[in-house]
Write a structure and sequence with these properties.
The protein is mostly helical. It is built from 7 helices and no strands. The longest helix is centred in the first third of the chain and has 31 residues.
Length: 193
């Protein structure tokens, strides 16, 4: 006897899409920051990635406070993606001209906070539903998405000589974050929240 799985809910599809966009952008951001910072010094690379991890954790834990939990999860997802896009925009501006350490740190911190908010909004432990896909398919998609984002960002960056391609690669990450915000906003409007 085979058991039929229930069709995935709209919320589950939205959460899966949000986490796929989040992991893709986060992985590509880490690789681009490492590649850019290693050209300056190894200490800069470690510092920026550590800052990203700390602010991601801060955004994740900060969005667990009761003040933020009162908001709808789609609302938190939307604003998290917007904050992440704002941070990435700082990174684009910092890398557009000369190497500005303060703008770079600000961009990494803001994008990390936004990505932490998205991660908290996309994960909900109180869900009681069946998985939309088999676990192996979910894992493959969660690995393939970030790998594709990394390859595309590195390809964009590699099309330019020296460091001039980094703003264009980070601009793609701004687009990914804005796509996540748009997807959350459309889902929010469709659900009538």
């Amino acid at each position: 006897m085979t058991a039929l799985s229930a069709p995935p809910s709209f919320a589950e599809k939205t959460r899966f899409t949000a986490t796929a966009l989040l992991y893709s952008g986060l992985a590509a951001q880490i690789v681009l920051l490492l590649k850019r910072s290693i050209q300056e010094s190894m200490v800069d690379a470690i510092t920026l990635v550590l800052l990203l991890v700390i602010t991601f954790t801060g955004g994740y834990l900060g969005s667990r406070w009761p003040v933020f939990r009162r908001k709808n999860w789609l609302n938190r997802l939307y604003y998290g993606f917007l904050v992440s896009a704002a941070g990435m925009l700082f990174l684009v501006m910092a890398l557009q001209g000369a190497y500005h350490w303060l703008s770079l740190v600000t961009g990494v911190a803001i994008s990390g906070l936004g990505q932490g908010i998205v991660a908290m909004a996309a994960t909900d432990t109180d869900r009681n539903h069946h998985a939309a896909m088999r676990p192996l398919s979910r894992i493959l998609l969660r690995v393939a998405g970030p790998l594709l984002a990394i390859v595309v960002c590195l390809h964009i960056q590699g099309q330019f000589s020296g460091i001039t391609g980094f703003p264009y690669a980070f601009a793609l990450l701004v687009d990914l974050a804005l796509l996540g915000a748009l997807h959350a906003k459309i889902t929010w409007a469709d659900q009538g929240y």
